[in-house]
Write a structure and sequence with these properties.
The chain contains eight helices and two strands. It has about 240 residues and is mainly α. The chain has a two-stranded antiparallel sheet with strand order 1-2. The two termini are about 25 Å apart. This is LPD1 domain-containing protein. It comes from Bacillus thuringiensis serovar toumanoffi. Pfam families: LPD1.
């Protein structure tokens, strides 16, 4: 139930931003077409929650066993930077990953999805080529390369789950907010030694924020609730829109 309550809160705040005159089934967390009526502090704190969902670095490993089964023409920035990085293939791959995925920042919708697939394929090919070049230079055969990627574990997990789907679900802003909201409520209940399985349960699985990120998100959601709840109550009671 708490997951849907998170969606309801998200949608209600979006409706508030348009004084309930927009008619769209949309969410404040989407960051799109937000009205001017909602106080800036609520928008800012929702953005802080989304940032807490996504920001960070996550450890990844890419399999490069097939790098040695073909001949390569070595080219590109990763080869040119090999000596600069003194053969640190993890550092090279991390830098390349960051620069490659920056291309997506200005895109959205279907165009972004298409570019993501293209960038991902190019990244996998480049990692294979880097492993082959490393073998040529050092004689060392690598089966995998570890590297740090931009994004939190929570966000990265959602992205990996969405790769098995035709459309994004797990990594959309409104779904990430709803799961984070579930986790926030269950954490609050446990802090008070309460439990309500009908309201929320099992938010300690891998699809939810965990560990330090969960604690950080809980604080950010609590900050959002401190301003959103009074505003919602005032809106229902007919108090001025700009009052909290």
């Amino acid at each position: 139930m708490c997951h849907e309550l998170g969606h309801a809160l998200d949608h209600f705040l979006y409706d508030c931003s348009h004084d309930f005159k927009n008619g769209s089934l949309a969410f404040l967390s989407s960051g799109k077409s937000i009205g001017n009526i909602l106080p800036a502090i609520i928008k800012d704190r929702m953005q802080a929650v989304l940032d807490a969902c996504k920001q960070g670095k996550v450890a990844r490993v890419i399999n490069v066993e097939n790098a040695h089964a073909r001949k390569w023409y070595f080219y590109g920035s990763v080869i040119n930077s090999y000596d600069v990085y003194k053969g640190n293939v993890s550092g090279i791959l991390e830098s390349y990953h960051l620069s490659s995925y920056r291309k997506l920042d200005t895109l959205s919708g279907a165009a972004k999805t298409r570019m993501e697939r293209k960038v991902e394929k190019e990244f996998e090919k480049t990692a294979q080529m880097l492993a082959a070049y490393h073998h040529k230079k050092t004689g060392e055969k690598l089966n995998e390369i570890s590297y740090q990627a931009k994004g939190s574990v929570y966000f990265d997990t959602a992205i990996q789950l969405d790769k098995k789907r035709t459309k994004k679900y797990w990594s959309t802003n409104h779904e990430m907010f709803a799961r984070a909201f579930e986790a926030y409520v269950e954490s609050a209940l446990l802090d008070q030694e309460h439990r309500n399985d009908y309201l929320v349960c099992d938010t300690y699985s891998f699809v939810y924020p965990l560990g330090e990120q969960r604690e950080y998100l809980n604080r950010n959601i609590n900050s959002l609730m401190e301003v959103a709840i009074p505003y919602i109550i005032n809106s229902i009671q007919g108090v001025g829109n700009n009052e909290l």
